[in-house]
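Feature request, filed as a ticket because there's no other form

It would be nice if the structure record came with a short human-readable summary line next to the tokens. Right now we just get the raw output. Example of a typical job, pasted below so the devs can see what we mean:
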Amino acid sequence: MMAKQVFFEAMKCTGLYVITDSTMAGMSHSSIVKESIKGGARIIQVRDKEMADGQLLQEMRQSIKELSDHHMLIVNDRVDVGFLAGAKGIHLGQDDLPVSEVRCLLGNEAIIGISTHNIKQFEQALGEDVDYIAIGPIYDTATKISSNKPLGLEYVTTLRAMTDKPLVAIGGITLERASKLWKEGIDAVAVVSDIMKSVDISGKIAEYIQLFTDHCSLTTL
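Raw output as currently delivered:
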């Protein structure tokens, strides 16, 4: 199955985008990936700003061994590590390599996403060759130190009306807030702390996916 097909089907089936944090979870990224898959997650981003390149490469390669054809592993920022590990997805921040350069390196089939924090960045992202756009922080979050202010649900509604491109909401996501975001048309919620701080990572993920399944059932009635 091609990477884009895997990604879009996974998003449609789960509405969830798990982001790893080994410090918060108290376990390796590869162990988090294993637990995430156990809980039903199909899109998982490995994010680590501090780990040495060689160590992260080992973690990525070990994580990829856990995947089936129905899972998408995305690496945050570290394009070189992702490329060497054979990851099919890269997530870029505003200060990372240009989307066009990453696309040239990884090819048309790779999944590329980008973070946006205001309307100007979002409008610029609409003109880029990206497969999804992350918007946030939607709510207050202590996961990532940033000067970006919470955007709120009204912002989500505005952006949803501007594009059919998949949107991923991040920042302060909880089960209750996830439901509200899905109702506003968000395709997937990116969750860090609420899952990584859980004593049962796989169980928490299963709760999110069940909630999304219930949401989809209600919207099709």
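Something like this underneath would help us a lot:
DSSP finds eleven helices and eight strands in the chain.
The beta strands are 16-19, 43-46, 72-76, 89-92, 111-116, 132-135, 167-170, 188-191.
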